[in-house]
Specification:
By secondary structure, the protein is α/β, with parallel strands linked by helices. The protein has one domain: Glycosidases (TIM Barrel), CATH 3.20.20.80. Helix content is 41%, strand content 14%. The chain is built from 15 helices and 15 strands. The strands form four sheets. The protein has an eight-stranded parallel beta sheet. A three-stranded mixed beta sheet has the order 6-8-9, covered by helices on one side. Strand 10 and strand 11 form a beta hairpin. Helix 6 runs parallel beside helix 9. The longest helix has 29 residues. Bound molecules: 6-O-phosphono-beta-D-glucopyranose. The site of 6-O-phosphono-beta-D-glucopyranose has 16 residues, from loops.
């Protein structure tokens, strides 16, 4: 693999970057009407990328990127879920064409944590079959419009989180048991929708590739106690392999199936769905990785009932990992080795090419005399890139790296103080100001790192 083939990129997502939440015909999205605590930034302006897109792409060019991982706002393109908003498509067309002009491959995700609220109102969101059809229609429209211009598509970003967070998928349920059952049905419905979209792409644009983006869960056992080792294996299976096995081979792992059946959580999947699920395989896997987890076997009296739904499982208990360095916004720790292990685990199970679609370090950066010194982020990114280099030297087919994020974005649930960007966006949680862009030290560092290339260390 030579360096020319390696894709150096950066990531953003529509609802976290664009703002303009009701401009040019965009419909309300689930994330636009969620309950944002007072004093925390919302999606209305976000990073105002909708009005800064030209300078943002210019900054990508100067950075030396050859891929840009973005997402399309479903509610900008299909405001009511069913009818196309031409101005929405036109916005992405401008971005795609400018990127291509600059030699940057646009890598769009169709569904990144955001959908038309109308689909929740009309079809019960991802719990209803109507949403599967609406997603496929939306995908078809995008594939047709951008045929020949998009080389690789992503179906769904982080199905694990997207299907579990009511603020993102828009389905609120006060009965915790029912909410858990819903989550597994949502996962199944998303998998069916994703496969139908893959099938459509192969008809519309056979040259184009498509794959999922997975929030990989690298889980360490708390000790060498075999029960802890089993808990770690179960946790990976419940949160990572279950969804990826579905994306790749259209079936759930046996342990996941038996657990869900034992607890009455197994989703409805028809025989026809099963055929659809097995009909096509992705061309690549996108990996999002920020930190690993540690678990032990649940101790007597362990109460999992209040945990986030994908941790609400009696097979494992999440514990702190004392071996990792932590920080305010990275409480689970930082661990480049986890990325290396993740690459190996994913490749050994699926034998597909991989691209790192997210990886980054959050910090409440400070502006000092007009500059942002972020050595902590540089150290984080450098160490993770080094692990990718190592994996590639060993033959693992990782074809790109897209740190999160190109510029500061509104966090998925924690506002604007939590910053990941290579470029500072001058706004606060409560005052959007002009959203002026200021490259951080990490931007200039990444620019040099890209120039040096992966093979030249
Ligand atoms: C990933 C998501 O989960 O992590 C992004 O794909 C998200 O949308 C990123 O922003 C960082 O998480 P957070 O919650 O810190 O914004």
């Amino acid at each position: 693999m030579n360096n020319k083939q390696f894709l150096w990129g950066a990531s953003t997502s529509a609802f976290q970057a664009e703002g303009a939440y009701l401009e040019d015909g965009k419909g309300l999205a689930t994330v636009d009407i969620r309950n944002v605590p007072a004093g925390i930034a919302d999606t209305k302006i976000a990073s105002d990328h909708y009005h800064h897109w030209e300078e943002d792409i210019q900054a990508m060019k100067e950075l030396g990127l050859n891929v840009y991982r973005l997402s399309f706002s479903w509610s900008r393109i299909m405001p009511d879920g069913w009818h196309v908003n031409e101005k929405g498509l036109a916005f992405y067309e401008k971005i795609i064409d400018r990127c291509l002009e600059y030699g940057i491959e646009p890598l769009p995700t169709l569904y990144h944590f955001e959908m038309p609220q109308a689909l929740v109102d009309q079809h019960n969101g991802w719990l209803g079959r109507g949403t599967i059809d609406a997603y496929v229609k939306y995908a078809q429209i995008c594939f047709e419009r951008f045929q020949g211009r998009i080389r690789r598509w992503v179906t769904i970003n982080e199905q694990l989180i997207a299907g579990a967070a009511p603020d993102l998928h828009g389905l609120h349920c006060s009965d915790a048991e029912q909410a858990l059952k819903n989550m597994y049905q949502i996962y199944a419905n998303m998998s069916i929708a994703e496969k139908k979209a893959m099938i459509e792409l192969k008809k519309i644009d056979p040259q184009a590739q498509i794959g999922p983006v997975c929030a990989i869960q690298i889980v360490y056992p708390d000790s060498s106690d075999p029960e802890d080792v089993k808990a770690a294996m179960d946790a990976e299976e419940m949160m990572m392999y279950s969804l990826l096995d579905m994306s790749v081979s259209g079936r759930y792992p046996l342990k996941y199936t038996s657990y869900l059946k034992e607890y009455g959580l197994y989703p409805e999947i028809s025989e026809e769905d099963r055929k659809t699920l097995k009909a096509v395989r992705p061309d690549f896997i996108g990996i999002n990785y920020y930190f690993p987890l540690a678990v032990r076997h649940p101790q007597p009296g362990y109460d999992y009932s209040k945990l986030p739904p994908f941790w609400r499982c009696p097979l494992f208990e999440v514990v702190e990992n004392p071996h990792l360095e932590k920080s305010e916004w990275m409480p689970n720790g930082m661990d480049p080795e986890g990325l290396y292990l993740g690459i190996r685990k994913i490749y050994d199970r699926y034998h597909l090419p991989m691209i790192i679609t997210e990886n980054g370090m959050a910090y409440s950066d400070l502006v000092e005399e007009g500059k942002i010194h972020d050595p902590y982020r540089i150290a984080y990114l450098d160490a993770h890139i080094e692990k990718i280099r190592q994996a590639r030297l060993e033959g693992y087919p990782v074809f790109g790296y897209c740190p999160w994020s190109l510029f500061d974005l509104v966090s998925s649930h924690q506002g604007f103080a939590k910053r990941y960007g290579l470029i500072y966006v001058d706004r606060t949680d409560t005052d959007p100001k002009q959203c002026r862009r200021i490259p951080k030290d990490s931007y200039y560092w990444y620019q040099k790192r890209i120039k040096r290339g992966l093979e030249n260390d």
